């Protein structure tokens, strides 16, 4: 539901990010909707310019679909349990990198 609202607001150029309104800087997720929409238009360059995490999210959805389709959820669950700290640290590092990039990204203002 929120994704649909975000897409509609994005089409009319309305920002709905509470983080941006509170602190007047973009959050690590700012530009994700535009990034994913650019991927659907096969415009990878624009997607990366909006937010590089969009590509990671789309790849994650494709991976999830393939895992679910081939019924390999137990392998993924085992991996996540064994490597929980690594997964969390990787996610935190990616979010910090996204925030640093977004802080200097003129497309998000």
Descriptive key words:
109 residues; mainly alpha
What does this structure look like?
- With 109 residues, the protein is mainly alpha-helical.
- The protein is built from seven helices and no strands.
- The two termini are 25 Å apart.
| CA(first)-CA(last) distance | 25 Å
Strand content: under 5%
List the total number of helices. 7
Helix content: over 70%
Number of domains: 1
Number of separate strands: 0
Q: Which regions are unreliable across 5 or more consecutive residues at pLDDT < 50?
A: none
Short description:
The chain is an all-alpha fold and 109 residues long. It has one domain. Helices cover 72% and strands 0% of the residues.
């Amino acid at each position: 539901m929120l994704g649909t609202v975000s897409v509609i607001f994005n089409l009319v150029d309305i920002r709905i990010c509470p983080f941006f309104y509170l602190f007047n800087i973009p959050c690590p997720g700012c530009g994700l909707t535009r990034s994913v929409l650019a991927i659907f238009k096969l415009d990878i360059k624009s997607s990366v310019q909006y937010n590089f995490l969009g590509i990671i999210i789309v790849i994650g959805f494709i991976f999830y679909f393939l895992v679910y389709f081939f019924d390999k959820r137990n392998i993924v669950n085992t991996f996540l349990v064994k490597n929980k700290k690594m997964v969390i640290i990787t996610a935190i590092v990616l979010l910090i990198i996204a925030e640093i990039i977004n802080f200097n990204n003129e497309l998000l203002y």
